[in-house]
Amino acid sequence: MFKKILVPIDFGENSKDVLQYAATLADKFQAEIHLLHVIEDLAALASGPDGFFKMPADTEKEIIQYAQKKLKEYTIPDVFDIPNKVLQVCDGTPFVEIIRYARDNKIDLIVLGTHGRSGLVHMLLGSVAEKVIRKSPCPTLAIRPEQLKFELP
């Protein structure tokens, strides 16, 4: 039985499709949905040609508030009967924070999207979904974007 389902949201094109899958499962199992957005290392955003600088507290706070506001916009359609929705924004390395959140909150299932990158782009950028799947403390369901069709070679 799934009682808590974690849905990492990156605000990408596939995020709403992923939430639809998760909402369907949450409805079926009467599970809570936890929506998590990870702001990738705020320190990395605060770098310039001369190296790193301290990001003003106001700016950091505004980035987090904007992400929280955007996360609230991800509504679950009324056709689903979901007992609880938890919204969380944090900063750090996405796959690390997703796994940490799953462990700390005793998540039963992670439902996340993939970007479908392959080849050199995948090798250079890595895959958050792949790292989460490899290190997850619970079952993980990866949802591919609709426009990517699997074709045999």
Give an overview in words:
Helix 4 packs parallel to helix 6. The protein has 6 helices and 7 strands, in the order E-H-E-H-E-E-H-E-H-E-H-H-E. It has a 5-stranded parallel sheet with strand order 5-2-1-6-7, sandwiched between helices. Strands 3-4 form a two-stranded antiparallel sheet. The chain has one domain: HUPs (Rossmann fold), CATH 3.40.50.
Order of helices and strands: EHEHEEHEHEHHE
The CATH class is Alpha Beta
Beginning-to-end CA distance, first to last residue: 37 Å
Number of DSSP helical runs: 6
- The average pLDDT score comes to 82
Q: In what order do the strands lie side by side in the largest sheet?
A: 5-2-1-6-7
**CATH homologous superfamily name?**
HUPs
CATH topology category name: Rossmann fold
Q: What does the main sheet amount to?
A: 5 strands, parallel
Strand content: 15-25%
What class, by secondary structure content?
Answer: alpha/beta
Mind telling me the C-alpha Rg? 16 Å
Strand segment count: 7
Keywords summarizing the entry:
two-stranded antiparallel sheet, 5-stranded parallel β-sheet
